Structures
1.
Amino acid sequence: YPTWKRTLTRRAREAQMKRFCKAQAIQRRLEEIEVTFRELEQQGIKLEKLLRDEEGTLADQKTRWMNELLYLVQKKNNLMSEESDLMITVQELKLEEQQWQLDQTLRWYLNMEESLKTPKDRAAEQEILTQLVDVVDKRNLLIHMQEEKRLSEL
């Protein structure tokens, strides 16, 4: 086994492990966001009840509760934005993994001796190449969406 093949295999495993670790971290953060959503919702419900039920409350207290409620809404919106970014990153990781798998299969076909390829092999190679281009286009679209979102937030 030539050194360059071992190096490529090792790098591929490292990249795959890196994607896996990133996916796990994203999953943990999504779970944390879900818990925080529930907590914010409970706090919001309490504040809404206070605002509705307390007829004789001072205007200053009501203003404070209203400000707290608006702060909770802002926090929830920020979490929703982060969740959206994480979901895009998950899609990007899936497409990256799919691209890697298609690339490996395509390399196998490309390394095959041309005279040994059957028409079925050539058709499969072309299909894989088409799928690979499609995956790259999808990744490009995701990156474009992220950039548009970032610019709109600015």
2.
Amino acid sequence: MASSLTCAGVIWAFLSFLCAAASCVGFFMPYWLLGSQLEKSVSFGTFRRCSYPVRDESRQTTVMVEQCGRYASFQAIPSAEWRICTVVTGLGCGLLLLVALTALMGCCVSELISRTVGRVAGGIQFLGG
């Protein structure tokens, strides 16, 4: 199995993959903000939420749904800032995964990553982060 990476490049590839995986897990988990509402513990992230209030029209009250789920649509995300954060964070995670998987392929394929490609990948990682 030939590699186009130096020892430092192999370490960079594996650390890149670990960081990209951690970023993606953090993006998909709904535990960005924790608090309580109606005496229940609630949490939410950019596009997921746990234990959220809904209006019960039959009883004319607000009840807590004690489950995790996504927002029904992109427009259902509470604010424009959270929508922007969802898009920017999602794009960043995508870029980080793209670079990390390319770097891991460079560990197995010779002549895949050159010095220029490595520099461009580092710049993409900087933007993704």
